[in-house]
């Protein structure tokens, strides 16, 4: 077999971690698509990337980014949370109701987050303790929460007029082209990404998504981690709810219904596999940005809204296809490397 | 039951432990004591309860009865984590890795070295992994994802993981099943040094010579019951086998001379980019051809390509004179080809299905009439073969995943033999199979050869190759390095070719 | 050969069902204890809740009983059909329905009528053959034209304008838009150009982004008409938070409560709407009159609608509520719905 | 996790014990059987306590309104068993409806239109299938994409129009029922399809392969199952039935619009999940799926009859879903524990395989 010196050379390749390179590449793919699209639009319509235009792009993405990042944490653990749309709706209204009663905006946000976390905990408990398929449970809670919401809200609605103007302004103001909401989302994003990358518990999310059985044997506290993922997801959906209120200044019992599909698409486009254990939240954020940008791009280049949906879908397919092709390329690299390693053996 | 130093307290021990799965009583009142600085072997047939015992020690299973003693004190392990924290490191029979994570992370999951603010120190994780691989003398890239590793490489990662604990107790469930001689030697070297540093070792292997090479004491189980615990020296292989099987064993390599017929399988200049190159050989009906080589030589890859699971980039495969369409296992089967794959859990069996369904998966046409399944036919086909290979099971309807490792392997054999193939490729057919069954499998193979089946046997178990093969093909770095007739095949000649010492003969 | 459109067109007839109704007795006493069921496009939709409650008050004063059922989605036609079926099962005296789709409900509604149930549509009509009466919030023509006039005044008749509608399939939206385009042909609107009709699908977020799109695509857009309560609200919210606030005029159909904030902060000068409560109560009176046999829905018949006065059935069984109200800074605080 | 025995605890595992009685409990608390029982209970109760439920008209309403979901649930079950999913079914139905309307307006004879629509469905399924099997993309992602794409194309094809003037005899087929019974005409083709699907899934090599592929694609491939072809054909079948549903939808509601059958996918998925089809693949029975479909359908019908508001109905649906997964799980764990306790006392040796051992 090998001399003891050799492996070290092979083991720490000068080129740095292949894994990281792969991940980076995947994000690059989406980034490329995004940049291309925006550039093309800008050329077609110079008003597009005006200060107002950029601001709008970022604002539109904010809410989806937050929810999608939460969803990604759950999906990485090989689970899924379909109830995010309903949670967003009910927390948004709760926050609005609170503000309507003359509550403090900051408290309102906290309230929304707490409520969201509570629903997340409910999902998490059902999935981790009950050990039942996440898809079914969260589809169930999707209905339950939505139903409770519409019973509680009835035909009431929160309108901008009843909200403190400070709160509403926070929803669309910012530092020149950089809206406050976007800053908030960015902070959350970086924090989550850093946690997943650099903390044991974060890595364990990936581990138990990659192989629950192995995770159990490696002594990963599986239930605790899954619960945590769901709570985080719920909390972020709650935060998104509060921001939705600030942004649109208008919430009723239908708010956020059907949102889960958008969120799932963002996660998928972002390169997080539903089989768990892989992907990064940065990719997801880019995915979210891509999806929302499409919806701003098409109208502003004058595509009749009749075409929007079709183009939406096709672009989504395109994005995941590109990502896939890249992934295939990488496995090719892997195999070549394996070959090289083997021939590197035995002198 | 006596042990050398009565004053000494066992580091880890079991007392009267029983464990049942449904009606299967995997363990009944078994006792076992592990002492510091001693390597203890656990012997027994497939399904004897070895792995179950280990899982009881490791806190995976909670015993129905009996107690686990740590330094003489009763303890309850609520999970693998508890056992780990108590200094018990376990290598399970089936590698359990995180396919998406890097090899290094696989080793240190949950125990990564940390920097300030409890952040994981990725650099030192990688370095530590590299250091472990150096100790074991394997050259895996710590950053390589575990997905795509061969069984052998996976097993090596598991070993590295266990070593990384520098635990007081090291438990190894058939760690060598996938390894070749040199790696085994490496492993034993490391284990011995650990033992000398005062670690207690529990070792399971179906290769008895390894038991004798490594261990001081051996405990034998039969059908979940404790049979004996005794020192190894002064114990003969036959005695040990008798304890395990409960009877005397006839010859381990019953090679019947079969008259060699026409060429059944011929492979010409087969090449798969980056995996194997220019592989040519023939297998005649009635012939058993051994395919030897070091781990990662590409033997399984060749087998997979021939059977059509992987595509090949160049070359040709003929079965019975007719060329095979590349990448079409169903056609290969139709042509009379059968492949017992290397990785029984991922490739050989559908773990989520019953024993019966697994056996019949290769005979859907055979067991259906006018496109509709015939339940009676299915059941009898399954029973027939399960009994012929003496699979130990409770009900055919049970999940195949609940069978012991060896019995799972038997089910894989059953499902392929049931297709009565004209060419049978077996990749590590006796990996993790006990001596008794091993003998049966060998008898079965030479019997098949006698009936005119062409057998290609990939094995990392050199004695097996030498004992069974009419001809030995040796692969080295993805090429056929040598072809050695039975007469000239010896440990030396084969290893020489496998390690590329001798130039390519033939 | 085969069955084609042409070969079946002859068969199709769209005479109001009333034409084949029994003769009416204008002086028949109003029956009591009737059950009138309201089936709005969408329950929990503020607009419909207001109008249905209008119907409720009317019915209670008449001594009839009221119930409301409906789907929680505004585009769940199948759901609406199955509700019509259920009501047929429960043998209510009359159904007041706002149709999500002009045709999809027909089979079910005809089945209801053939089981002796009176059918009145309000806010959004079905094919005339599938109901006895349609209570129209305001003549579509008046609505369409008046909204153009309104915007015209606000931008003193110059500049590019766009329309932000609801779903592409929304019947009443499309009729109004038709009249708007026609109105724009008039000379005084010569300097106003309709550049685009966008669809927000009555979804806050979509309408929101459609508005953004309009403003980016047509930098010198001066005005937007949004003849849907959801659309105008979303557009107003976007404008109020953007640099276009005040620079781009917005009008259309909205409820005072939704729009109050934007009228006050100067985003919107004026918009219009009929009183949904009155619409609902008129529907209730009409249904009762039908169920009491006072009318059959034939053209020219008249019926009393309490404080709303007396109404006459127009062509194709249409009853018009009246002119819409225009809401501005000055009068908006007098309304609360 | 700590004490779960690796390799067991799956839905189809049935704890073996020496005494037949207790493992029959184990068998009985299977998910799908529970749902079937629930459906039975519901029907009995409704017939006896809910007035207007039992009469022919209502039953025909019930079936007519449930048929679209029941139709698509058939191929969806097979697809999900093989480990894939198709969320574009609603859009496929909508698209074929839209095309039906457009062609009708263009003056084509309905006899040619309907086959064209069905063909279109096949194409839609083919697109999904090829993207999944050839490019190896996750079906969830692909079909979310086509969910939007197909719906969008429908919108382009038919735009704002809604076509309604289809020939009466066809409309009658869509909404009418067999004289003197409560059975809609359309229920007959469905029954036939049900029979076919049931046989294919549970009594043919194809069905066996589907389960194998769903449980472990790699092992299936190593056993000579033609995985890609199998999955592709399932996607095609799903597309075909979806378009069939689209045509039926148009005739049933006498209206072709681009937004027909919006959100149908979620109802189908909910029903199939409720029927105990495991979305990881490899598990489930068609009976369970059908029971799930009609449980939801009947429940909605009954709740409307007794004036339960739409919102509360949503809650009930959700609760039902959660219970239907939690219930069997709990029951099974109880019966396993039960079995464990018995076998400890029982001193039966490990049964060794003999032909007599299990007859
Ligand atoms: N999770 C389980 N569920 C049900 N039965 C099980 C389970 N695990 C093991 N068994 C049964 O317990 C018995 C002992 O299994 P075990 O794996 O301990 O055998 P073993 O000695 O490790 O065999 P091998 O040498 O083949 O690995 C076997 O009959 C097996 O079928
Ligand atoms: N599924 C796979 N995907 C990618 N690479 C693989 C895969 N399986 C094996 N390899 C790599 O291909 C090389 C050949 O492995 P393979 O297992 O075929 O060798 P082998 O001669 O069969 O050795 P053994 O069977 O003893 O492990 C190894 O380097 C292994 O890491
Ligand atoms: Mg074992
Ligand atoms: Mg191999």
Give a written overview of the molecule.
The complex is a heterotetramer of chains A (347), B (506), C (337) and D (359). In chain A, 76% of the residues lie in helices and 1% in strands. By secondary structure, chain A is mainly alpha-helical. Chain A has a two-stranded antiparallel ribbon. In chain A, strand 1 and strand 2 form a beta hairpin. In chain A, helix 3 runs antiparallel to helix 13 and helix 5 packs antiparallel against helix 11. Chain B contains 17 helices and 22 strands. In chain B, a hairpin with a 2-residue loop joins strand 4 and strand 5. In chain B, helix 4 crosses helix 5. The longest helix of chain B has 16 residues. The termini of chain B are far apart. The model of chain B has no long low-confidence stretch (mean pLDDT 89). Chain D is an all-alpha fold and 359 residues long. Chain D has one domain: Orthogonal Bundle (ABC transporter involved in vitamin B12 uptake, BtuC). The structure holds adenosine-5'-triphosphate (2 copies) and magnesium ion (2 copies). The site of one magnesium ion (MG) has 5 residues of chain B, from helix 9.
Secondary structure elements and pairings:
The complex is a heterotetramer of chains A (347), B (506), C (337) and D (359).
Chain A (H helix, E strand, L loop, with lengths): L4 H7 L6 H27 L6 H26 L7 H17 L4 H24 L5 H20 L11 H8 L1 E2 L2 E2 H19 L1 H11 L1 H6 L4 H27 L10 H11 L11 H20 L4 H40 L3
Chain B lengths: L11 E10 L2 E11 L4 E6 L5 H9 L6 E6 L2 E3 L4 H6 L2 E4 L11 H6 L13 H15 L14 H14 L4 E5 L7 H16 L3 E5 L3 H7 L2 E6 L2 E7 L5 H9 L17 E10 L3 E9 L3 E6 L5 H9 L6 E6 L2 E2 L5 H6 L2 E4 L3 H5 L6 H6 L7 E2 L2 E2 L1 H14 L16 H13 L5 E5 L7 H16 L3 E5 L3 H7 L2 E6 L2 E7 L5 H8 L8
Parallel strand pairs in B: 3-8, 3-9, 6-7, 7-8, 13-20, 13-21, 16-19, 19-20
Antiparallel strand pairs in B: 1-2, 1-4, 4-5, 9-10, 11-12, 11-14, 14-15, 17-18, 21-22
Chain D lengths: L19 H9 L2 H19 L6 H26 L7 H17 L4 H24 L5 H20 L9 H8 L11 H17 L1 H11 L1 H6 L4 H26 L11 H11 L11 H20 L4 H36 L14
Helix pairs in contact in D: 1-14, 2-13, 3-8, 3-9, 3-11, 3-12, 3-13, 4-5, 4-6, 4-11, 5-6, 5-11, 7-11, 8-9, 12-13
The complex binds adenosine-5'-triphosphate (ATP) (2 copies) and magnesium ion (2 copies).
């Amino acid at each position: 077999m090998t001399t003891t010196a050799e492996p070290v050379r092979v083991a720490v390749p000068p080129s740095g971690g292949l894994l990281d390179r792969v991940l980076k590449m995947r994000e690059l793919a989406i980034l490329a698509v995004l940049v291309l699209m925006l550039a093309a639009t800008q050329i077609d319509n110079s008003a597009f990337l005006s200060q107002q235009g950029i601001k709008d792009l970022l604002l539109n993405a904010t809410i989806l980014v937050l929810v999608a990042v939460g969803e990604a944490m759950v999906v990485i653990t090989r689970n899924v949370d379909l109830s995010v749309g309903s949670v967003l709706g009910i927390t948004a209204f709760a926050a609005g109701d609170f503000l309507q009663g003359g509550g403090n905006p900051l408290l309102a946000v906290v309230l929304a987050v707490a409520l969201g976390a509570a629903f997340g905990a409910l999902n998490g408990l059902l999935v981790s303790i009950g050990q039942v398929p996440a898809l079914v449970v969260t589809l169930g809670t999707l209905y339950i929460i939505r139903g409770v919401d519409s019973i509680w809200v009835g035909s009431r609605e929160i309108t901008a007029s009843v909200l403190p103007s400070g709160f509403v302004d926070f929803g669309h103001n910012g530092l020149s082209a950089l809206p406050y909401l976007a800053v908030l989302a960015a902070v959350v994003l970086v924090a989550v990404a850093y946690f997943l990358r650099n903390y044991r518990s974060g890595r364990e999310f990936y581990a138990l998504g990659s192989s629950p059985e192995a995770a159990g044997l490696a002594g990963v506290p599986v239930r605790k981690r899954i619960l945590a993922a769901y709570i985080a997801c719920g909390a972020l959906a709650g935060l998104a709810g509060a921001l939705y209120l600030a942004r649109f200044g208008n919430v009723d019992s239908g708010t956020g219904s059907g949102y889960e599909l958008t969120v799932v698409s963002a996660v998928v486009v972002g390169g997080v596999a539903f089989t768990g254990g892989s992907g990064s939240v940065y990719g997801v954020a880019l995915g979210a940005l891509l999806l929302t940008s499409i919806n701003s791009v098409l109208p502003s280049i004058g595509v009749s809204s009749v075409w929007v949906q079709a183009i939406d879908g096709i672009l989504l397919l395109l994005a995941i296809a590109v990502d896939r092709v890249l992934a295939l390329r990488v496995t090719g690299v892997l195999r070549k490397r394996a070959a090289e390693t083997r021939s590197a053996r035995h002198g | 039951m006596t042990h050398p130093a009565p004053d000494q307290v066992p580091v880890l021990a079991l007392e009267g432990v029983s464990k049942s799965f449904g009606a299967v009583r995997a363990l009944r009142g078994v006792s076992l004591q592990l002492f510091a600085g001693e390597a203890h072997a656990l012997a027994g047939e497939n399904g004897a309860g070895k792995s179950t015992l280990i899982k009881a020690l490791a806190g995976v299973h909670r015993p129905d009865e009996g107690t686990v003693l740590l330094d003489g004190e009763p303890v309850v392990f609520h999970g693998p984590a508890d056992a780990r924290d108590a200094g018990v490191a376990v290598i399970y029979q089936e590698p359990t890795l995180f396919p998406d994570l890097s090899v290094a992370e696989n080793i240190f999951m949950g125990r990564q070295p940390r920097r300030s603010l409890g952040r994981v120190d990725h650099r030192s994780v990688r370095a530590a992994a590299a250091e472990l691989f150096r100790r074991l003398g394997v050259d895996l890239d710590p950053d390589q994802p575990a997905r795509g590793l061969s069984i052998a490489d996976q097993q090596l990662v598991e070993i590295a993981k266990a070593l990384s604990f520098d635990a007081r107790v090291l438990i190894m469930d058939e760690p060598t099943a996938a390894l070749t001689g040199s790696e085994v030697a490496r492993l034993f070297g490391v284990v011995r040094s650990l033992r000398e540093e005062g670690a207690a070792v529990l070792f399971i292997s179906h290769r008895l010579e390894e038991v004798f090479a490594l261990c001081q004491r051996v405990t034998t189980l039969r059908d979940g019951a404790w049979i004996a615990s005794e020192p190894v020296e002064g114990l003969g292989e036959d005695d040990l086998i008798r304890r395990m099987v409960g009877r005397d064993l006839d010859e381990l390599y019953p090679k019947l001379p079969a008259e060699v017929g026409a060429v059944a399988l011929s492979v010409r200049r087969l090449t798969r980019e980056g995996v194997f190159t220019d592989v040519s050989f023939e297998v005649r009906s009635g012939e058993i051809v051994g395919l030897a080589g070091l781990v990662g030589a590409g033997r399984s890859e060749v087998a997979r390509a021939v059977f059509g699971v992987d595509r090949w980039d160049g070359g040709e495969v003929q079965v019975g004179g007719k060329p095979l369409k590349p990448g079409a296992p169903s056609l290969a089967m139709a042509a009379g080809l059968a492949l017992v794959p290397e990785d029984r859990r991922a490739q050989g069996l559908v773990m989520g299905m019953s024993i019966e369904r697994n056996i019949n998966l290769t005979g859907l046409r055979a067991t259906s009439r006018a496109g509709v399944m015939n339940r009676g036919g299915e059941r009898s086909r399954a029973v027939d073969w399960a009994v012929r290979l003496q699979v130990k099971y409770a009900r055919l309807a049970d999940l195949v995943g609940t069978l012991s490792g060896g019995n799972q392997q038997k089910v894989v054999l059953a499902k392929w033999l049931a297709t009565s193939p004209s060419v049978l490729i077996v990749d590590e057919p006796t990996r993790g199979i006990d001596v008794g069954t091993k003998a049966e499998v060998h008898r079965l193979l030479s019997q098949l050869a006698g009936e005119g089946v062409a057998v290609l046997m990939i094995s990392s178990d050199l004695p097996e190759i030498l004992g069974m093969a009419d001809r030995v093909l040796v692969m080295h770095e993805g090429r056929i390095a040598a072809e050695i007739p039975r007469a000239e095949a010896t440990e030396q000649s084969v290893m020489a070719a496998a390690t590329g010492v001798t130039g390519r003969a033939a | 050969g085969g069955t084609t459109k042409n070969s079946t067109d002859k068969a199709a007839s769209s005479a109001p069902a009333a034409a084949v109704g029994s003769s009416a007795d204008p002086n028949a006493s109003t029956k009591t204890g009737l059950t009138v069921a309201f089936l709005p496009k969408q329950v929990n939709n503020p607009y419909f809740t207001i109008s249905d409650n209008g119907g409720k008050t009317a019915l209670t004063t008449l001594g009839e009983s009221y119930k409301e059922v409906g789907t929680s989605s505004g585009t769940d036609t199948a759901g609406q059909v199955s509700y019509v079926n259920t009501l047929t099962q429960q043998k209510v005296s009359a159904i007041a329905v706002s149709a999500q789709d002009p045709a999809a409900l027909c089979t079910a509604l005809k089945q209801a009528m053939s089981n002796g149930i009176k059918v009145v549509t309000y806010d959004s009509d079905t094919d005339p053959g599938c109901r006895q009466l349609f209570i129209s919030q305001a003549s579509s023509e008046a609505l369409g034209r008046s909204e153009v006039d309104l915007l015209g005044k606000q931008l003193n008749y110059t500049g590019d304008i766009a329309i932000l509608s609801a779903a592409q399939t929304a019947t009443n939206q499309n009729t109004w838009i038709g009249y708007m385009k026609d109105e724009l042909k008039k000379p005084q609107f010569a300097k106003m150009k309709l550049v685009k009709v966008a669809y927000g699908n009555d979804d806050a977020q979509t309408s929101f982004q459609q508005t953004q799109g309009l403003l980016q695509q047509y930098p010198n857009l001066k005005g937007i008409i949004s003849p849907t309560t959801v659309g105008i609200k979303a557009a107003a919210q976007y404008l109020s938070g953007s640099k276009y606030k005040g620079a781009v005029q917005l009008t259309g159909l909205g409820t005072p409560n939704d729009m109050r904030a934007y009228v006050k902060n100067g985003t919107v000068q004026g918009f219009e709407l009929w009183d949904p409560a009155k619409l609902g109560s008129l529907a209730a009176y009409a249904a009762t009159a039908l169920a009491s046999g006072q009318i059959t829905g034939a053209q020219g018949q008249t019926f009393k609608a309490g404080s709303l006065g007396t109404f006459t059935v127009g062509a194709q069984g249409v009853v018009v509520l009246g002119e819409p109200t225009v809401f501005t800074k000055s009068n908006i605080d007098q309304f609360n719905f | 996790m700590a004490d779960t025995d690796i390799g067991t605890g799956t839905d189809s595992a049935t704890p073996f014990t020496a005494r037949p009685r207790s493992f029959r409990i184990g068998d009985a608390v299977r998910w799908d059987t529970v749902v079937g029982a629930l459906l039975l209970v519901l029907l009995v109760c409704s017939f006896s306590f809910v007035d207007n439920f039992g009469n022919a008209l209502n039953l025909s309403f019930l079936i007519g309104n449930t048929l679209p979901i029941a139709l698509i649930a058939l191929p969806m079950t097979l697809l999900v068993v093989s480990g894939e999913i198709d969320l574009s079914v609603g859009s496929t139905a909508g698209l074929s409806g839209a095309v039906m309307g457009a062609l009708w307006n263009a003056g084509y004879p309905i006899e040619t239109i309907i086959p064209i629509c069905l063909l279109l469905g096949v194409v839609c399924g083919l697109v999904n299938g090829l993207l999944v099997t050839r490019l190896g993309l996750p079906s969830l992602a692909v079909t979310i994409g086509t969910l939007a794409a197909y719906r969008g194309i429908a919108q382009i094809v038919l735009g704002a129009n809604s076509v309604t003037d289809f020939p009466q005899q066809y409309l009658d087929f869509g909404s009418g029922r067999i004289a003197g019974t409560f059975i809609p005409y359309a229920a007959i083709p469905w029954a036939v399809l049900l029979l076919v699907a049931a046989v294919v899934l549970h009594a043919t090599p194809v069905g066996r392969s589907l389960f194998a592929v769903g449980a472990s694609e790699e092992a299936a491939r190593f056993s000579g199952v033609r995985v890609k072809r199998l999955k592709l054909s399932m996607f095609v079948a799903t597309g075909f039935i979806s378009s069939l549903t689209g045509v039926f939808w148009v005739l049933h509601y006498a209206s072709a619009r681009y937004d027909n059958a919006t959100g149908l996918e979620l109802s189908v998925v909910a029903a199939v999940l409720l029927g105990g089809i495991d979305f990881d693949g490899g598990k489930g029975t068609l009976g369970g799926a059908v029971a799930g479909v009609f449980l939801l359908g009947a429940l909605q019908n009954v709740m409307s009859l007794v004036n339960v508001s739409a919102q509360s109905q949503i809650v009930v649906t959700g609760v039902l879903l959660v219970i239907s997964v939690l219930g069997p799980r709990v029951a099974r764990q109880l019966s396993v524990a039960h079995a464990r306790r018995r076998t400890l006392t029982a001193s039966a040796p490990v049964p060794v395989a003999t032909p007599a051992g299990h007859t």
